[in-house]
Write a structure and sequence with these properties.
Layout (H helix, E strand, L loop, with lengths): L1 H13 L6 H34 L10 H57 L5 H28 L8 E5 H11 L1 H7 L1 E7 L7 E5 H17 L8 E10 L2 E8 L19 H5 L8 H11 L3 E6 L5 E7 L9
Parallel strand pairs: 2-4
Antiparallel strand pairs: 1-3, 4-5, 5-7, 6-7
Length: 324
């Protein structure tokens, strides 16, 4: 293009004929030589790029600084994508195992209901007793189904996470009131002790998911505390640790074996109590642990046989002027 412009300019300014073939031949020759040199110099680079597309572990033969930088960028991108793929595969495999185990566990109440119906048809059970037993088994099914649906919703937690500032002491009173029939019929009674010493017990969390977690903890505390003819208490104690709000839920139940504690948050682990006929599903505490991690609070358990169980929930505190 430069030669064309120079030729036109020269011809217009001098008004003399200009030789075209010779300079153009020289220009084209120089261009071809220059492009050949460029092709040779970048041939190995492009070859290495094509190899890298097929094999992320391929290091290539790079000599120039920009080529080395491109190679590092490609390798970093490959590593990040491989990590992402492995993480997704691991989550999917865990979900498949969980659903498979849950479906298998659901066969038990369905089988029990079938046996109840068969006994009722044979006249071994009266209608009232059969309906009561079927209702109990059906309640287990509904409770387990609702819990698993919530666990599945945790996979899309970001879409359903609504953090808000609320007073934990007021929230506990509301949760206790919503579970009052459970407390009354089980003869297990709640006590609330606020040891915050006049300091605000406000926390920033998702109110709905926090309530799901506390409902399940209360359900477990009542289940393993109730005893025929004996009144028991469940104590809700609020306190502060290093300016963080802490909730302790302490029951007077049968407690857990020390050997079971490291595994209580594993899905479908029922421990000694579950094997002794407490109708444990093994997903309640797993559900609580999953929620606690999503709403960024710390959940831990202490327990011993015949001494009850203490659940500790440590909430992160935020200033009231923080908005998310």
């Amino acid at each position: 293009m430069a030669i064309v412009l120079i030729t036109v300019f020269y011809q217009l300014s001098t008004k003399k004929p200009v030789e075209i073939i010779y300079p153009y031949s020289i220009a084209i020759t120089i261009y071809i030589i220059w492009m050949s040199v460029r092709y040779v110099s970048y041939r190995s680079f492009y070859h290495s790029l094509s190899r890298m597309e097929k094999n992320c572990a391929y290091e290539g033969r790079f000599t120039k600084e920009d080529e080395i930088a491109i190679n590092r960028a490609f390798n970093q991108i490959h590593r990040e994508y491989l990590q992402m793929i492995r993480y997704m595969e691991s989550n999917e495999e865990e979900r498949r195992r969980f659903l498979s185990a849950w479906i298998h566990s659901m066969k038990t109440p369905v089988t029990v209901e079938s046996l109840i119906i068969q006994r009722a048809n044979r006249g071994e059970l009266d209608e009232k007793t059969a309906m009561k037993d079927i209702t109990l088994e059906n309640d287990k099914l509904l409770s387990s189904l609702d819990m698993v649906l919530n666990i599945m919703r945790l996979q899309e937690f970001a879409k359903d996470y609504v953090p808000e500032e609320f007073d934990l002491a007021d929230e506990i009173n509301q949760i206790i009131n919503s579970n009052k029939r459970l407390f009354i019929y089980s003869k297990v009674f709640p006590k609330v002790i606020n040891e915050c010493g006049g300091v605000s017990s406000k926390v920033l969390s998702d109110r709905k998911w926090n309530r799901h977690m506390l409902d399940q903890i209360i359900s477990n505390a009542v289940k393993y505390s109730k005893e025929e003819g004996v009144a028991k208490n469940i104590t809700f104690r609020l306190t502060k640790e290093e300016k963080k709000t802490v909730l302790f839920v302490e029951d007077e139940g049968i407690g857990m074996e020390e050997t079971d504690l490291p595994r209580v948050f594993e899905p479908f682990f029922t421990g000694e109590n579950g094997r002794n006929g407490r109708n444990a599903s093994g997903i309640g505490l797993y559900f609580c642990k999953e929620i606690s991690e999503h709403i960024q609070c710390e959940l831990s358990i202490e327990s011993s046989i015949a001494a009850g169980t203490k659940v500790k929930i440590l909430y992160m505190n935020y200033p009231s002027n923080v908005f998310i």
